[in-house]
Write a sequence for this structure.
């Protein structure tokens, strides 16, 4: 196994992490390997059993500098002063053939000093879920961490459901810096670490950013773009805690997440999100809240705190407008409008209200707009017809609404019931549904496997995804 490591995080001060190796597993077996991603990273996988040992955590590859990262974060609004990689080990970084530096991290690789009450492990279901959904997100053109490998461990792990097969995911990310990485040093008053981290983040992600406020501006822009992209594909992250909010602007942590079937602004999938804090429609507002936590942390490094707070506040106050603009741009494209004005917001909101009233399928309704059969997605067809008259009138003057809609409305998203079926099959050693999903989701704007476009039947509906990850 040749992984061309080029590590930078491991050279940061010792207070940033704890060095330790992954914990070996009983019987590592390679379930999935992402050849395209490996090629991008310049990794030569070599033979399968060696890949299983490396990505299962049994063999530390040459050049790796394994460590668990420290961070903190607000979980469902309350601050937890110490989280950190409780079940993940950063092996190191590589610079891809595209010149981009990326982390290679094992997730589910055993306990660390940050494990608290956890076992440091993951079970097969969430590992395959993250593999499929993160790769689907990438294929949709939305910034995300990616999946390089999935390895089964041959060890049982215990969750509420009982004993389940253990697995390890190899996650690839632009970095694992989060809002919570800044919070931990800010809350502890470790100003020097905070400055070091700020400079590191700027160098790694936003080399043109001017100081901490430039970094804040850049993260706000990247995250606003990300969250509006989620909205446009009906994605509900499920755990938008500050430790799951990246500095890079990539989607991270596919826990109790889901793509919606029937549209509803208040839709929640996570079984632990009783209050609906992270409901679909709340995501932009929560993002602003998370970015305000980043701002609060960044200002701790200024001598003149009053002036810094004023500047940071202005930056955060500008985010809702950015979100509205990006939301409008992305949803306008979905209905064929390439240069939207504020007045188009009403047209789009009316369509969403109709979809919500009828429980119409989000993906299929938008996709059907490209063809002439969107009407069939609604139960109140007269109401849809009234809307469609206004809509056709509006897009008449647009350059090529058809083409714009076709590239803005995916035919296929990873539906929750298909993920669930895929996991059930994998539990009985049948990886074909996993392969099939990956194949179809790799080209989401093409109708390569129409059966996968179908919303769940009443019996197939998976109402919640559990946090028992
Ligand atoms: P998450 O909800 O996945 O973002 O995780 C929140 C925190 O809990 C992170 O610090 C994780 O490392 C930690 N954690 C989650 N699951 C486990 C586990 N099974 N063992 C140890 N730590 C865990
Ligand atoms: Mg997390």
């Amino acid at each position: 196994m040749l992984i061309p490591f080029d590590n930078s995080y491991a050279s940061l001060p010792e207070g940033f992490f704890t060095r330790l190796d992954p914990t070996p597993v009983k019987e590592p077996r390679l379930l999935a390997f992402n050849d395209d991603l490996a090629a991008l990273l310049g990794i030569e996988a070599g033979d399968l059993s060696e890949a299983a040992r490396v990505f299962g955590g049994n063999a530390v590859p040459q050049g790796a500098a394994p460590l668990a990262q420290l961070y903190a974060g607000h979980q469902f609004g309350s601050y937890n002063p110490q989280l950190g990689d409780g079940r993940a080990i950063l092996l190191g970084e590589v610079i891809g053939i595209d010149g981009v530096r990326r982390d290679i991290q094992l997730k589910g690789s055993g306990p660390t000093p940050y494990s608290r009450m956890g076992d440091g492990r993951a079970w097969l279901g969430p590992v395959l879920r993250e593999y499929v959904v993160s790769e689907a997100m990438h294929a949709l053109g939305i910034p995300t961490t990616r999946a390089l490998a999935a390895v089964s461990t041959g060890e049982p792990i215990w969750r509420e459901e009982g004993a389940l097969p253990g697995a390890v995911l190899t996650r690839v990310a632009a970095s694992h810096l989060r809002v919570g990485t800044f919070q931990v040093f800010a809350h502890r008053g470790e100003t020097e670490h905070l400055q070091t981290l700020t400079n590191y983040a700027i160098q790694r992600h936003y080399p043109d950013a001017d100081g901490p406020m430039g970094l804040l501006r850049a993260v706000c822009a990247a995250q606003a773009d990300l969250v509006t992209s989620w909205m446009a594909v009906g994605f509900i992250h499920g755990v938008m805690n500050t430790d799951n909010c990246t500095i890079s602007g990539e989607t991270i942590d596919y826990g109790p997440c889901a793509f919606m079937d029937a549209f509803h602004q208040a839709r929640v999938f996570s079984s632990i999100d009783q209050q609906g804090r992270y409901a679909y429609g709340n995501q932009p507002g929560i993002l602003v809240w998370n970015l305000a936590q980043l701002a609060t942390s960044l200002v701790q490094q200024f001598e003149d705190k009053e002036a810094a707070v004023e500047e940071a506040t202005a930056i955060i106050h500008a985010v809702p407008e950015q979100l509205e603009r990006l939301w409008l741009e992305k949803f306008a494209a979905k209905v064929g409008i390439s240069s939207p004005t504020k007045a188009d917001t009403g047209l789009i909101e009316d369509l969403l209200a109709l979809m919500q009233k009828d429980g119409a399928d989000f993906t299929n309704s938008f996709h059907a707009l490209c063809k002439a059969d969107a009407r069939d997605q609604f139960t109140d067809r007269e109401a849809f017809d009234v809307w469609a008259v206004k809509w056709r009138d509006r897009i008449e003057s647009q350059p090529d609404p058809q083409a714009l809609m076709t590239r803005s409305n995916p035919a296929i998203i990873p539906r929750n019931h298909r993920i669930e079926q895929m996991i059930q099959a994998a539990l009985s050693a049948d990886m074909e549904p996993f392969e099939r999903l990956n194949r179809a989701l790799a080209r989401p704007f093409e109708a390569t496997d129409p059966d996968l476009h179908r919303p769940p039947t009443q019996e197939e509906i998976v109402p919640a995804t559990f946090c028992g990850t």
The mean pLDDT is 96. Residues 83-87, 114-115, 118-121, 239, 243-244, 253, 255 surround adenosine monophosphate (ligand 1) (CB under 6 Å). DSSP finds 15 helices and twelve strands in the chain.
